[in-house]
Amino acid sequence: MFRRKSKLKKEFDERLHSLMVATKEEWEQARGIERYLNDYDQEVIVRRKIAECKHFYLYKEAKARQLGKD
Fold first, then answer.
1. Fewer CB within 10 Å of terminal CB in the chain, N or C?
2. Which helix (H) or strand (E) holds 16?
C-alpha cells in the first residue's frame, strides 16, 4: 500500500518538474520577445505575465511538496 503511494508521488513529482521546465522556457521566450519589441504591445506583455505566474505557481507547489529534498 505504501509503495503505491510512493510510486504515485514520484510520478506526480516528475510531472511537476517537467511542467516547471516547460513553463520556465515559455517565460524566458516571452521575455525575449518582449525585449526585442520596438513598440508597446499589450498582448505580448500579458503573455509574459501569464507565463511568469504559471511558473511561480508551480515553483510554490514544488516548494510545498519539498520536491528537491528526496
1. N
2. helix 2-35
Q: Is residue 16 part of a domain?
A: no
Number of domain units in the chain = 1
- 69 lies in some domain: yes
Q: Is residue 17 part of a domain?
A: no
CB contact set of 26 (below 8 Å; sequence gap of 6+): 51, 54, 55
The CA–CA distances, whole Å, from 63 to 18, 45, 46, 48 equal 15, 27, 26, 22
Domain that holds residue 53: 23-70
Question: Each residue of 25-69: pLDDT tens digit?
Answer: 999 999 998 888 877 788 888 999 999 999 999 999 999 988 765
